Structures are given as structure tokens and as C-alpha cells.
Amino acid sequence: QVQLVESGGGLVQPGGSLRLSCAASGSSFSIYRMGWYRQAPGKQRDLVATITSGGSINYADSVKGRFTISRDNTKNTVYLQMNSLKPEDTAVYYCNARRSASDLSWGQGTQVTVSS
Predict the structure, then answer these.
(1) What's the pLDDT tens digit per position in 58-105?
(2) By C-alpha distance, which of 74, 65, 67, 75 is closest to 50?
(3) What angle do CA 43, 17, 95 make, to 5 degrees?
(4) Quick one: which of 30, 48, 59, 111 could link to 36 by a disulfide (CB 3.0–4.6 Å)?
């Protein structure tokens, strides 16, 4: 079982930036893939970006060119650098970690609000 703690959310103006962090602990070894998802009220939880232990990255089309996911394997931490933020980016952002096909862990989420 992996415990995940997100941080770095907050309120920013359109065009601003935030950097989210997700630290993994507990049974954090052998994590194959970590990622970020987001969920707005009344909406489904959608993929934002994922990164594997080998560095393979996948982004949602809506964030390509604006967001950057990175991972520090020595610290078991994944980051999401968010630039050029838009109001539609407003959501609770969740970190996840996959150790196997049957082992997926989620953090509790951190709120990101983009508004003037």
C-alpha cells in the first residue's frame, strides 16, 4: 500500500503558474507509474499527465504545451508544473501511483482555482 500526499495547490490568476508535488511513502518501492488527474464538481475524474519509472510521459491534449510532469525516483516524488493556467483548469488535482495492474493508490487531492 502506498500513501500519497499532494501539495502546492492554491488560487492563481489566469495566465499564472503553480507547481504541484506528490510524495509517496509506505510501500513506495516498485512504483511503475505515477500521474496526475483532476476532477471538477459534477465532472468525471480525467487524466492530466502520467510518467513511468523509465521516464515515458503522457499528457492530456488540453494541457499539452502548458503543463510539465516530472519525477524524482530517489525521492519517490512526482511534480506537475502548470503554466499559462486557465479558468477551465480549476479542479481538485489528485496524484496516483501504480505498482501493478491490481495495485493503484490515490492521494486525497489538492484544490487548484484559476480565477480573477
Answers:
(1) 999 999 999 999 998 788 899 999 999 999 999 999 999 999 989 999
(2) 67
(3) 45
(4) 48
C-alpha–C-alpha distance, residues 48 and 60, integer Å: 5
Closest CA to 81 of 105, 92, 65, 97: 65
State which amino acid sits at residue 102: S
Does residue 1 surpass a pLDDT of 90? no
| Cβ count within 10 A of residue 38 | 23
Among candidate residues 25, 28, 43, the one with its CA nearest the CA of residue 92: 43
Burial letters 39-63, b for 16+ CB under 10 A, else e: eeeeeeeeebbbbeeeeeeebeeeb
* Residue in the structure block whose three cell numbers are 480573477: 116
Contact 11, 111 (CB under 8 A): no
